[in-house]
Amino acid sequence: MRKNIVAGNWKMNTTVPEGVQLAKEVVEKSKEVPAEVGLIVATPFTHLCPVAEVLKGTRVELSAQNCADKEKGAYTGEVSVGMLVSTGAKWTILGHSERRQYYGETDAKLVDKVQLALAAGLKVILCVGENLDEREAGKHFEVVKTQTENVLFHFTAEDMKNIVIAYEPVWAIGTGKTATAEQAQEIHACIRKVLAGKFGAQVADDTTILYGGSCKSSNAKELFAQPDIDGGLIGGAALKSDDFIAIAKAF
Ligand code: PEP
User: Fold this and answer.
1) Which one of 101, 109, 160, 189 is most buried, by most CB atoms within 10 A?
2) Distance (Å, rounded) from C-alpha 59 to C-alpha 42?
3) 173 lines ligand 1 (CB under 6 A)
4) Neighbour-count burial for 95-113, b at 16+ CB within 10 Å, e otherwise
5) Does 95 contact ligand 1 (Cβ within 6 A)?
6) What per-residue confidence (pLDDT) applies to 177?
């Protein structure tokens, strides 16, 4: 059985004290969320250690937002998977559209990053999603299918146990424009079909697929009610604990 998850992507927001405070509030309010819903906060690198202290012994898991594509060495400014693990992080987001768009993250680079993350014992939230031009040209299924295949077809059914997929249409991220529940559902179903074709029906059925893109408490219920939507990757609304928890309560 796949798990329902709500993950907050804080992006490049909050100072360390603000992040620690936000994490404390999420922990406190997590009691309101059904126990079977997984809760994750993805903080900036600088926040991982102090937030790990806050999350210790709680149900809220810690994630990074990226990792280096090399194991270690002379790569100034990069943060390795080993460093992430040493902070207490259990997850990393990879392939977020902002990283693809602004930092030249390619599918090939993502294969290396996913490989390193899994080898270090980190779980991965892999983001896929089409941009507005691709959606308007009717290429959304093709784009998401290709991104999924380009990265995940390098991995095994066993690896898939530690990989969650987040479908995030780029035109819906931070824009206030949410994909309709039907638009999201049909892409999620397509991703699951791609997984079934490669890894078999069981793996496809067991893989958690999150929706991301202006998800908020007012639309989460309808989105999460779709058969192939297993939760959300939340940006803006994850920066207020009440909003984040209200989304997690939408199951
Ligand atoms: C995100 O960037 O992962 C995201 C979903 O952002 P927002 O919720 O702000 O659209």
Assistant:
1) 160
2) 14
3) yes
4) bbbbbbeeeebebebbbbb
5) no
6) 87
Q: Ligand 1 centroid to 5 CA: how many Å? A: 15
Q: Residue 97 to residues 100, 128, 135, 140, 221: CA-CA distances in angstroms?
A: 5, 7, 15, 14, 24
Q: What is the mean pLDDT of the chain?
A: 98
Q: Would the pTM of this model clear 0.90, i.e. be above it? A: yes
32 belongs to the catalytic site:
no
pLDDT in tens, 142-200: 999 999 999 999 999 999 999 999 999 999 999 988 899 999 999 999 999 999 999 99
Do β-strands 91-94 and 209-212 pair in parallel, antiparallel, or remain unpaired? Answer: unpaired
Task: Confirm or reject: Cβ of 215 under 6 Å from ligand 1.
Answer: yes
Say how far apart CA 160 and CA 205 lie, in whole Å.
11
Whole-angstrom CA distances from 144 to 28, 124, 188 are 37, 17, 10
- The confidence score (pLDDT) of residue 20 equals 99
Tokens of 193: 């079909």
Question: Could you say which DSSP state residue 239 is in?
Answer: G
Name the nearest CA neighbour of 203 among 160, 166, 167: 160
**End-to-end alpha carbon distance in the chain:** 16
Residue of 156, 147, 75, 149 whose CA lies nearest to 115? 156
d(CA 145, CA 216): 26
Question: Quick one: 1 exposed, middle or buried, by C-beta within 10 A (0-12, 13-18, 19+)?
Answer: exposed
Q: Which domains does the chain have, with CATH numbers?
A: 13-241 (3.20.20.70)
d(CA 64, CA 115): 16
Please indicate whether residue 168 is annotated as part of the active site: yes
The CA distance from 94 to 149, in Å, is: 15
